[in-house]
Amino acid sequence: MGNCWCKWEPTIYKNPKSESPKEQERERREGSKLPSNPEEVEDLRGGDSAANPLIAFTFEELKIITANFRQDRVLGGGGFGNVYKGFIPEDLREGLQIQPLPLPVAVKVHDGDNSYQGHREWLAEVIFLGQLSHPNLVKLIGYCCQDDHRVLIYEYMPRGSVENNLFSSKYVLFSSLKPTSSMQCHYRNLAKRPEKKYHFD
What we know:
By secondary structure, the protein is α+β, with helices and mostly antiparallel strands. Helices cover 30% and strands 17% of the residues.
């Protein structure tokens, strides 16, 4: 799973000279409050006018999807937290607009870091990846914003991570670049010689 990072911070524009420093700090804290429920997340995404509709899952539904976050379902992990493989069953919720069911998904669970920065990164993924739709991008299906739980639900891609596919030994892409860098070294050494006669056959 790739990560999308951005710096996003709500801003309140007021005349700073009209308020005391205490009032300015209080305004800054209140103006940068992060959403604590799906309704607030959808307001930030633009509500019904959002490009791609996302499903707001409950944490109880995610326990069903991931079989209670079983360790044998862990696909990987990173700075954000663990990623679990799960399946959205047909009987999860009435009126769920996802086809086909059961649908395999990747569930990216925030590691419980309740820092302001961690929540901002989660929110940035919801807002920006929720707007994108492209055949070469993994689709964000939904999210969970309940109590302290911050979770993202993506479509599942079965062929492993991008990192493993790019850097595994079965691909020779990066090993084929070694002769090129070797030739660059030799060219630099030749260029340093006093008499410069080159023959590139």
